[in-house]
Design brief:
This protein has 1 helix and 3 strands; from the N terminus they run E-E-E-H. By secondary structure, it is an alpha+beta fold. It has one domain: Double Stranded RNA Binding Domain (2-Layer Sandwich).
């Protein structure tokens, strides 16, 4: 099993997602739930393609954290 961080951003009228550890692996959707499903499928296809091409699967090195700041 592989785990990858996915960043989801609100755009104009939809959402977009990407994984910093998988360059070029992106997806969009009308809702957060939809982009999450689409990213799952995109990552699955990306990893399968790497395996088929006998390329290494990148290790997940990214992480996210919220930082609270009082102004």
């Amino acid at each position: 099993m592989y785990r990858f961080l996915v960043i989801i951003e609100k755009a104009n009228g939809n959402y977009s997602g990407y994984s910093p550890d998988l360059p070029g692996c992106v997806a969009t959707g009308k809702t957060r739930a939809q982009v999450t499903r689409n990213m799952y499928e995109a990552i699955e296809l990306h990893v399968r393609g790497l395996i088929e091409d006998e390329l290494p699967i990148p290790k997940s090195q990214s992480f996210a954290e919220y930082i609270a700041v009082s102004a």
